[in-house]
Amino acid sequence: MAQQIDHIYERVLVSNLLFGAIGASSRNMDVFSSWLLAGFAAVAAGIFANLGEATRHLTPHVLHTFFVCFFATVILGIVAKFLAVLVAGASAGAAIGRVEGARAAESGVELDVPFFFSEVKRAIIWPARWFVKRSFAKAAKGDLSASARSFTVVVQVQALCMFAQALVVLWVVGVVACSATF
Predict the structure, then answer these.
(1) pLDDT in tens, 84-106
(2) Virtual CA dihedral for 50, 54, 60, 61, nearest 10 degrees?
(3) Which of 23, 73, 109, 130 counts the most CB atoms within 10 A of its CB?
(4) pTM, whole model, 2 decimals?
């Protein structure tokens, strides 16, 4: 017999809303982060290609600061991209799950939840397996929105990385602008 879950419709609705929202916002942040990094990389390449001319207008300390900030922006961009990929996968999987879950429910198929969780866990490598195991344990106890809440936190970390990227870029532009001599 299937387990009775309190507020099942509300939990499913919360999960659907969160996965829909995080998928859209993560995509937008990923695009902004990528463009920010591409623009910074283009400027860095231009400065590096014309280092002789750049040193006539910028001190070695400012150039060093610029390239350190570029490195920091690249690291933040890599972390943000990694998180965006995780969120995109989870959001797409949730969308497929909604469709297939509704189809199974309409046809009267009863899902073997432990087998389902076992099969998914087999496809996941460590350390993500730990995250998935915890999420499935919560879902098995009836907390159907736990995974969506966890990925909402992941998107917030992605947003912090993107915001930090933007702050670093703005700060270094200010340093270069205030230090340049023409």
Answers:
(1) 999 998 888 888 888 887 888 88
(2) -110
(3) 73
(4) 0.84
